[in-house]
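Render this sequence as a predicted structure.
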Amino acid sequence: MGLFESDWWRVAAATVAVAVAAAAGLWRAVRLVHEWSYERNLDDDLRRRLPPGDLGFPFIGNMWAFLRAFKSGVPDSFIDSFVQRYGRIGIYKSFMFGSPTILVTIPETCKPVLMDDENFVTGWPKAAVELVGKKSFIGISPEEHKWLRKLTSAPINGYDALSTYLKFIEETVVSTLEKWAEMGQIEFLTEIRKLTFRIIMHIFLSMEGDSVMESLERVYTDLNYGMRAMAIKLPGFAYQRALKARKKLVEVLQAALDIRRASRARGTSKKAKDMMDGLIDVEDENGRKLDDEEIIDTLIMYLNAGHESSGHITMWATIFLQENREYFEKAKAEQEEIRRNMLPTQKALTLKDVRKMEYLSKIIDETLRIVNISFVSFRQATTNVYINGYLIPKGWKVQTWYRNVHMDPEVYPDPKSFNPSRWDGLVPRAGTFLPFGAGSRLCPGNDLARIEISVFLHYFLLGYKLERANPECPVRYLPHPRPTDNCLARITKLLTTSS
């Protein structure tokens, strides 16, 4: 190589190096400006008290890292990256869903956030509130939440209401398992979501009819998929489809509500009451009733607890039991004992029977822990708050990472193993078991969801088995953990069943 050529390569290499350094410097400057734009109102002392972390790039923040982790099949790598950089301190600075956000990830940091209604209010992204409803529990003030929760508790979780729902749940589970056993290979998750949707729509609206149910179930699936998507209002994106789904659901529920109110005005309403009737009837001590928007947003919110959560947990509990014979046999023995102790004249389960399912309850708790349907919740600080010595600034969002608590080996040894026996004699410390949240905003539909899951597992254990086509199928984690083949399987009825 001649002298000229040698010089040319050195100049080219130096130019590239300068360009790379300039680009790196520019990116760093952009990140610093982004961070400064949200921290500029904090004095030096307050800025020093912020937890470690970074706000990433404008608009995007840490969202790409979050989505990449969950879509890669290793969802825990997102929080693990903070732990590796800053240690297991349980509180980190980030930028999520378009807002500066503090991530709290261990019981010691989650508990004070969840239990402090004065300094932390609900802080769901605006996009999620737009989908679920501004008058739902996630979109209203603490005072309104307290009022609405008190007013709606009896029509949803009261003893009389749950006893009424139990009869339909049991009848539907029995007939559906019989049908599945004759269908051959099915997408178990798809079918069980149809089952739970049919149950919840009957409880809400006394609605039946497969064609209507399937249409609405698909609509709700679109809405749910948009809940944790980036709020991009362009055709083809999950959030845009979710907005259309929300509009369709509101139209269906408003039409049902109009018909219900008109029949009441004519005095021709049916005697049997469903959840919509209950929400129409309730009133507070001052005679105030729920308006249409409050009723509709409440019903849409409860769809999640009674459909998505119960459907996915039922599928995973069934899979775990089928894969772990020891636990299967122990759970089955308990259900056989409950059947033996029923009176000869008793034809159906009662709430008392369901509450005797103590080992099955451990199966459900362990499934809730390991699957993490609700992996994070959202709050917002109303004032400057200090947790573990770190500042959460007023107005910043706070994410409580339930998933990280449940999968932390310092909280649950060998956390990835399905082990219902870990619950033997265990009373979880406050903040260590959060499948339905905690504090005043504990998920109000958890009792109904547990009944649905328990009744299904009762009949499955006594008379059926699951044979998966692809037991090693990869898992997709957004919006909820599920096998990529939707659990392709056969449901087989056993030759002998217990009664």
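Summary. The chain has two domains: 3-40, 63-493. The two ends are 90 Å apart (CA to CA).
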